[in-house]
């Protein structure tokens, strides 16, 4: 066993033991503790737990990979996800907390005085959450398969087992305190390697500042900034300039950002976190603290992405472009390269038989004559999965084994924390909204708690199966989950709080129309959009010829939301208004003031 293996098993094992220990200590004994942690979580602690709940494998593992290969264009994720939290803090969290219920479908059912609306909301919630949780399962499998050197399937089973122990036993109470520990693990795991790498490349220990600092080569200032150096490296090999690269059209970037923003504000597993604090004011404070904790990672991600891309290119292109000895010999490739090849997430093909690795953009017609003059027969790095960049970056930069082990633990913490939140949202929608709310209204608290735990187990098994056998429309991206939440849940919550004339017919019609249009668009274009083996958020993006106004499927949630709003208002205008007491309820929810503990009734 190597030193890296020992560190990895030790660090990952210690964090797993911590999570399980917390779950045993914080075991839920009531439905209130299972669904909303008893409603007594301190806003700072809740902000930290919310940050961990939010920063999934997509944030930890994939986002920097997307930034590494999409450059400036990938800023849509930073703007969309952080902007969504501002929307959530200002427009939804305090009002939903004042309403005092356990779940999003329960709010929708009561606000729109309709069991049908509640059921439709449950369906939308499950579709969005299941789509999202598939990405977390892939993140767990990727991390385990490389660093614990077990098959992807085995890694997934281990992750499912850990989640089952602390989520089923602890419910929201156990998950909350586990997520606080997971946040500490993941933020150290993300920032410590970034500090080391920033020091190596720029001499600046602050990654956020290192991104714009001078590039240091062999201990000597190069006269270029790090971003200038990266632009030079990638354009010399036929890739787009890093700092000006966009994803699709400007319209697509705008709509994509908007979809991620309102999708963030509409994700049930995030919203439910604001039901766990004692007062309405605490819901606002929680959102503010969550933004602070999230910003620590999100402001570091651009530096991690840029530095990872530069390290990768410099590892392979070791001399002048086109020089006989300018490319790395395949037989002399470093150990990290060999290890990632074993996972299948990194693949090489010697197309010209020279034994060296040519890594360039062979789809660039302007670079093709140069490549031909060099004797290159095509890009030989036939697969570089974006999801490996954060995990491989410390190895590429030759950082100590304990730092690499910390990154593995961080990636697993990110995936496990979000998976637990999503699975609880699914479980509560089944046990509380369908069973207690619709099917068996007189069920006892003990029976409901048992049903909640059984629902969680079933949700874990389904999520694990879909992680092993992902459906076509969800295999490529968790961003689709944001589109589904944006097109179905966010509009009905907004109208429920700010449009007292909105009735049940409009709400139901809007949800169905919004999510249907979004799903149809995703299914119709999945062949254009999804490229097997690319990052589970989104591959490097061109533009589909038949995209609606150049809008990608991942960005279409904003269009679905517009359809939702439009249909809801049109149907509401030609049907009976809500009862008088519902209209008074909407006005009361918007009046500043406190609220008691969530009742769940």
TrEMBL record:
It holds the Pfam family SSF. It is found in: Membrane. InterPro entries: Na/Glc_symporter_sf, Na/solute_symporter, Na/solute_symporter_VC_2705, Sodium:Solute_Symporter. It is a multi-pass membrane protein. The keyword Secreted does not apply. The chain crosses the membrane at residues 6-26, 75-96, 116-134, 154-171, 183-201, 253-275, 287-308, 399-426, 447-467, 473-493, 505-523, 547-571. Its main location: membrane. The keyword Membrane applies. GO terms for molecular function: symporter activity. Keywords: Membrane, Symport, Transmembrane, Transmembrane helix, Transport. It comes from the Bacteria. PANTHER family: NA(+):SOLUTE SYMPORTER (SSF FAMILY) (PTHR48086:SF5), SODIUM/PROLINE SYMPORTER-RELATED (PTHR48086). This is Cation acetate symporter.
